[in-house]
């Protein structure tokens, strides 16, 4: 597919990208090559190929999503700069 410099300038304008005439002339054949490649991909027979999200088997390493009762007050309060009676202690900001 052939892309002319006017089309490149129009695309750049729509994308709000400032390009010079030299850049438009350089990008026109590159965009044409990309569109040709996309047309070639459309010719590939994918009948019988299941949709996939990755080309290799991929398993996420996440912990099990299990509801717990918490009970980690001491661990949480260990990060507090100041704690008292099982609560965060903050300075008074309103008189």
N- and C-termini, Cα separation: 73 Å
The beta-strand count equals 2
Rg on CA atoms, Å:
29 Å
Count of DSSP helices? 3
Which parts are unreliable, with pLDDT below 50 for 5 consecutive residues or more? Answer: none
Beta-strand percentage range = under 5%
**Fraction of helical residues:** 25-40%
> How confident is the prediction overall: mean pLDDT?
90
Which of globular, elongated, flat, extended, rod-shaped describes the shape?
elongated
N to C succession of SSEs:
HHHEE
Class by helix and strand content? mainly alpha
Q: What does the largest sheet look like?
A: 2 strands, antiparallel
Largest beta sheet: what is the strand line-up?
A: 1-2
Oligomer: single chain
Outline the fold blueprint.
Blueprint: H1 5-14, H2 21-42, H3 73-77, E1 83-84, E2 87-88
Antiparallel strand pairs: 1-2
Helix pairs in contact: 1-2
From the structure above, extract its key features.
95 residues, mainly alpha, two-stranded antiparallel ribbon
Describe the structure concisely for a colleague.
This protein is mostly helical and 95 residues long. Helix content is 39%, strand content 4%.
Outline the structure in words.
It is a single chain. The protein contains three helices and two strands. Helices cover 39% and strands 4% of the residues. With 95 residues, the chain is mainly alpha-helical. A two-stranded antiparallel sheet has the order 1-2. The model has no long low-confidence stretch (mean pLDDT 90). Strand 1 and strand 2 form a beta hairpin. Helix 1 crosses helix 2 (21-42). The longest helix has 22 residues, at 21-42.
């Amino acid at each position: 597919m052939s892309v002319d410099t006017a089309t490149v300038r129009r695309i750049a304008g729509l994308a709000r990208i400032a390009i010079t005439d030299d850049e438009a002339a350089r990008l026109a054949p590159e965009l044409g090559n990309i569109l040709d490649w996309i047309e070639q991909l459309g010719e590939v027979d994918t009948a019988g190929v299941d949709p996939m999200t990755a080309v290799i088997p991929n398993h996420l390493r996440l912990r099990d999503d299990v509801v717990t009762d918490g009970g980690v007050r001491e661990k949480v309060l260990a990060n507090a700069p100041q704690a008292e009676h099982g609560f965060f202690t903050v300075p008074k900001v309103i008189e």
